[in-house]
Amino acid sequence: MKILLPLLVLFLLMLHLFPHCSTQSPDRELIHSTCMHTPNYDLCISTMRSNPMTSITDVRGMAHVIVRVALLRATETLNHIKMLLDETKSPELQRRLHNCLKLYTAIATELLPEAIEGLATGNNKFAYQGAIDTASLTDSCNKMFKDASCDSPISNRNQAVHDLSVIVASVVNILLTS
Fold first, then answer.
1. Cα(171)–Cα(61) distance, rounded to whole angstroms?
2. What are residue 60's phi and psi, to 5 degrees?
């Protein structure tokens, strides 16, 4: 019993002196608690873990990271659509891809950059609307292939942009309600 008390005191002292060694850092706790308020916890967590920024100090920082990843994915999808349009011979597929190209042009050049600007300037409603509009346009692109005789060659990419934009909207909504 005499030895346990000094060990306990030493342990508590070490925790106080070296808080960065604890199992749950403030960044991890912020990410975990924020991602819990999104519809896709796993994607939110994996997006934040793949972030090269080493320190996220607030919810706004998280929103910045996720919206930038969404913009990256949207730009990749836009470029993929352009490549598919160059390669495809099917007029039906070309028409549907061309319609998605218009939507993704708006997403990658207007909506998500405006959401980034909204976050940077503190206009959270603007950022929220850009994310919601992005999700809506990805749904529209997806619907172009619902009744088609051809499958969507961009369904996975489209779903990723949709899911990321919904996460952005959820995180920005935390800013709007706090």
1. 10
2. -60, -40
Q: What is the residue whose two structure tokens read 């873990």?
A: 49
What's the token pair of residue 170? Answer: 């959820």
Cβ atoms of 158 and 67 within 8 Å: the answer is: no
The single residue listed with the structure tokens 């708006």 is 106
Q: Tell me the DSSP string of 66-97.
A: HHHHHHHHHHHHHHHHHHHHHH---HHHHHHH
For 151, counting Cβ atoms within 10 Å of its Cβ (0-12 exposed, 13-18 middle, 19+ buried), the class is: exposed
pLDDT, tens digit (0-9, with 9 covering 90-100), for 35-94: 999 999 999 999 998 876 646 779 999 999 999 999 999 999 999 999 999 999 999 999
Q: Helices 112-121 and 155-177 sit at what angle, rounded to 10 degrees?
A: 20
